[in-house]
Predict the structure.
Amino acid sequence: MADQYDVVVIGAGPAGYPAAIRAAQHKLRVACIDEWKNRDGSSALGGTCLNAGCIPSKALLESTELLHRAQHEFAAHGIGASGLKVDLAAMQKRRATIVKTMTQGIAGLFKAAGVTALAGHGRLLAPGRVEFTAHDGSKRELLAKHVVLASGSVPVELKSVPFDGKQIIDSWGALELDAVPKRLGVIGAGVIGLELGSVWRRLGAEVVVLEALPDFLPMADGAVAKEALRHFRKLGLDIRLGTKVSGAKRAGGAVEVEYADASAATQRLVVDTLVVAVGRRPNSRELLADGTGVKLDERGFVVVDDACRTGIDGVWAVGDLVRGPMLAHKGKEEGVMVADLIAGHFGEVNYRAVPSVIYTAPEIAWVGQTEEQVKASGRPYKVGTFPFMASGRARAMEAGAGFAKIVAASDDDEILGVHIIGPMAGELIAEAVLAMEYSASTEDLQRTMHAHPTLSEALHEAALAADRKAIDIPNKAG
Ligand code: FAD
Ligand code: AMP
């Protein structure tokens, strides 16, 4: 007889595992299937985010930023730090240990919540019916009142630059290198390309980033993107915009990359390792049997409404598998929303307040609309900007680069977007997200007391600057 569940979740990444845990909190009988296998053959929960994405990248960014600060900032504090040595094996071991601890943590959470974890492949046969293939190849059918598809995404492979797993690698490979390449090429100046490029640059690699688009970080606010490009180039990232890669091949122990530069002339670049970071695509491999009725769009995303319903009763889809930004926290909120809705509770995701963070130095974070988007919308607006150079805390941290910027409606004062480049931007943005969640105005932020001296004062002062009421910087005339 088939196993019976209230909810079967396919995928235990940051979208799937919270769906499973929340459903179990609602006293539903839940199973979560995940097929992730590490390079050593072991299975692990947590998906891309924990095993090959957010967490390992942040571990390496933290280690290498410490190195960079020791090399370039300690002197300003009066600390001599000569003879610094990098033990890459130890750095990588730390990264691997963090990942292992976190993924085992999810196994522990499943156990505590009563979620049945099944290691292997899940496939929706029909609404209410899931085929589970264990890693040993044995199959069985699970019956479920609800199925949540959370199979995530995989790296996009360029046809002309096929991965070889050694010198032409994806982002996962780039997180697990055991030696610093002398010359590293990165295709794609998106979030992942910039984070990985920063890690290996700080460890001493010569890094060239090839980006097809003529504009840098087009999804970010223009002023932030401009400031970011300046800092990344200062770090030594050789970012070449408007360069479209047309092929790469192994030649004499190196990789020869061919690309068209901004004037369409063909150029060659020789590197030791090439990271292809040109985006990710939804992972719907062997996910749906014929005739389930679940629709995929032309790019392979499962089509869902705002509540992550597929339109087929009892079948839901969340995370990178569906429209919207490919971010762990967006998937998490969708997973929780779906589980709440399944249990008959209220559930909603506010897609207008999804924060984005790039964990480089300086760090970049934003929520809501960019100034360019607000301008294009035609709504009258005002802008307040506060440079970290004027923040006592930032100066004390030797981290005066960057600024906080607020874009707000001039008619009703609503905050439309907040953009931060500077120290702890990813933490600071949380206040802006909360403000936008509660439809706060700049006046609300202006009247909120911020501890002194903290980085958060930058946001407070930016809100004041929007009305030319800043205290700690001269207000712009006008
Ligand atoms: P995934 O995390 O991809 O998980 C899906 C899981 O489902 C996987 O374990 C997969 O093996 C499993 N699976 C797939 N199909 C099946 C099947 N049929 N049966 C069983 N199991 C299946 N996002 C952030 O928000 N912040 C960051 O800092 C960040 N950094 C990143 C850095 C890198 C290098 C990368 C690559 C990504 C990063 N991301 C970051 C993006 C983030 O990892 C994804 O948005 C997130 O993991 C998506 O979650 P998900 O649960 O939808 O899918
Ligand atoms: P993201 O989708 O944010 O991960 O970013 C991927 C980046 O890779 C985008 O900015 C793309 O413009 C860029 N890209 C895609 N294909 C190519 C290519 N063939 N050569 C150079 N850059 C590319």
Q: What stands out?
A: The longest helix spans residues 88-113. The chain has a mean pLDDT of 97. The chain has 13 helices and 21 strands.
